[in-house]
Specification:
By secondary structure, this protein is mainly α. The chain is built from three helices and two strands, in the order αββαα.
């Protein structure tokens, strides 16, 4: 998924060989290679930030859905025991439908 954004693999870096001039490695060649490595590190850093942000959003959604499930489970328990003294106008069918939809989301049921 993110691999197309990274140009070098670990093996590419390990296998890289520079041509040797009379005074050593060619500085331009080394600089170009280091520029690619720097670009990859910047890209990996951006990918990590994106994934952390996505993870936080998913954790927040999970917490919200668990709270809604607890609320709906409590309402369902009230309905099952026959103590239906809700004042907000929610009827039994609506609560059951919402609970069913929530279970589908959380447990992946069809």
């Amino acid at each position: 998924m993110y691999q197309e954004r990274i140009l070098l693999t670990v093996q590419d870096i390990l296998d890289k060989e520079f041509k040797i001039d009379t005074r050593g490695y060619r500085p331009q060649e080394v600089d170009k290679f280091l520029d690619v490595i720097i670009r990859d590190y910047e890209e990996m850093s951006a990918v990590i930030k994106e994934l952390e942000s996505e993870k936080k959003a998913l954790v927040d959604d999970n917490i919200r859905l668990k709270q809604e499930l607890r609320t709906l489970s409590t309402k369902l328990d009230v309905i099952r025991t026959g103590d239906n003294t809700e004042s907000n106008g929610t009827n039994t069918a609506d609560v059951l439908r919402r609970l069913s939809n929530l279970e589908k989301i959380i447990y992946g049921r069809e």
